[in-house]
């Protein structure tokens, strides 16, 4: 029995019963494991270990594939928002009644193998481009490029639709986070150089706009010792002639107009140039 369970876990914990049968296990041993409660049956023809990933169990039960922002999060990519689970089904499949779930009926660019419960990086990114707003999709794509999960060359060889082509054309593999992508995209209209994560006065700054305007974005960890270090660094930057604007993550994501107003006013005063 232990060998059977180990074999199931090595194959992801949720799989078609025929996979184990092809591996040499008998239908009788699988049935015995189910009867004893050591395996479950999420759907006819499928089995799952009791400690299997709940998302995979749910996907097997519904006959769908995890994709789009749901799978992007599972792959460790930056995702702006996941309002509900996103799943994919073949474009020829019958309609599904899955309340509170976003179902994608588009044909995958990479064929899905029988028994596959998760999309790979390519199908995931292409579905994100079709589903999400431009900025959010770009941030997720750049996260994948930066993490080395995919290259622009590989993506460029796919039969992409116009929305995905636009994201691919604008995507850069150097952004460490979706937040960086959002800021750069939203300030592109300024037509000023924007450098990301560069070292000044012994510390990294989030963004350097022009020559002298520093934009720092604080997350929830900017408290205590971190906050004291930030204040000291801001003082050092000021003494070197830089102008520092410090905002919060929430402002960037939810109240962008406040951030843009601060940057606009600083640029209007020439605080981004070395001549001031």
Automatic annotation (TrEMBL):
Naturally occurring in which organism (per UniProt): Microbacterium salsuginis
Any matching Pfam family: DUF559
Annotated DUF559 domain residues: 192-266
First and last residue of the signal peptide: none
Listed name of the protein: DUF559 domain-containing protein
Lineage: Bacteria, Bacillati, Actinomycetota, Actinomycetes, Micrococcales
